[in-house]
Amino acid sequence: MSSEFQEVIFDEFIELASEKVPVESLTLETYISTENMIPNKGGIEVASSLPNSKTVNKFVKGDTLFSNIRTYFEKVHFADFSGGASPDVLIFRTKSAQKLLPEYLYYIASNKDFIDFTVRTSKGAKMPRGDKGAIQGHKLLLPPLSTQQRISDILRTLDKKITLNRQINQTLEAMAQAMFKSWFVDFEPVKAKMQALENSGTEDDANLAAMQAISGKTADQLATLKTQHPDQYQQLHHTASLFPSAMQDSELGEIPAGWEVKSLDTMAHYQNGLALQKFRPEDENDFLPVVKIAQLKKGFTDGEEKASPNINPSCIIDDGDVVFSWSGTLVVDSWCGGKAALNQHLFKVTSDDHPKWFYYYFTKHHLDEFQRIAQAKAVTMGHIKREHLKKALCAVPDSDLIAHLGQTIKPLLDKAVAVRLENRTLTELRDTLLPKLLSGELQISTEDVA
């Protein structure tokens, strides 16, 4: 430890803020509870509802919010706005910014040493909560203000890049889902063709209308594209020509003429995971981390459980694989947490007939209905059955059209996976540096900071 670091008591420099704010003054965007805090220091989501109480604890910009339920989920957030928080979210506030920077306080609360301390001293078995008294008596190492600033700057640079990548991913996902819904659920290119023909247009007019529906461009913008990028224009023209200009009746309702109806379970293979407590590693140095629903939600393995690497290969997942939790919390995701063993209650989704993006977005398309079915079950762990996969119908065009549309959607999904893998690397770097910087083991100088 560097000599400039001094051991201090948490309560000497940090207060647990308890000032109240009326709930009626809050919005879904300014209310934070443990439910809308994202694990692994992943930030926050918009709240789904406001509490029934008249008041909640008030936080201000610069406070650190710390979820005090099951603190091993590492739900820690640096407030960049003022609002209100539920009682199970502790509000850490520096008593003097001249002695402890708010940004540095956030990294103290994010440090694994502090998280582990709160886990060890938690009370309660079913829903363990951090012990406020123990937290207030926790010992910290505190460097001078200038060192706090340099350390915060280094870690904040990594956090900003991680946050930017998350925003990029959200944009990519929204774009891909909007395209998929337009083409395969709402059939907008087909309807655009039909409307053009109903208005006495020619086949060329119908194709142009479909091109607009596919690309989101106006006729003038397409004319410019034709002049400046003729190859792109011709590719779009050919893709539009593959859409039919009529609808047909089906068990799904009206679908584009020539398309067929398939159920999810015939379009893709949903491989259930294993009861991995029966497949422990033969060698403690040769194992696969286990992915359960909790790890899928977090997006990474945490080493809580290990499995033999010699399990059925169809129950091993790796980066980019589609995973669907069909019990408890229903989630569909592209796994980006590295090679792992898949536990029961999770499907690994694959297909020999259709590309990954196609069955991924069709599974996501049916997720709302699956969640409704699971929530309706009067059991602790709501779930769906394979019969529900059979009842989930999809309108499927020929392989030629799927291949052409894949040239647009597949790169978005590939980019999203690549960005998440970059974030995994950045997160590992941040979490490696964090305890070393805060303990003084890794010393920095002014020259270390750009």
UniProtKB/TrEMBL annotation:
Keywords: DNA-binding, Endonuclease, Hydrolase, Nuclease, Restriction system. InterPro entries: Restrct_endonuc_typeI_TRD, Restrct_endonuc_typeI_TRD_sf, Type-I_RS_S_subunit. One of its GO terms (molecular function) is endonuclease activity. Pfam families: Methylase_S. GO terms for biological process: DNA restriction-modification system. Residues 46-173, 256-392 form the Type I restriction modification DNA specificity domain. Belongs to the type-I restriction system S methylase family. This is Restriction endonuclease. It comes from Thiomicrospira aerophila AL3.
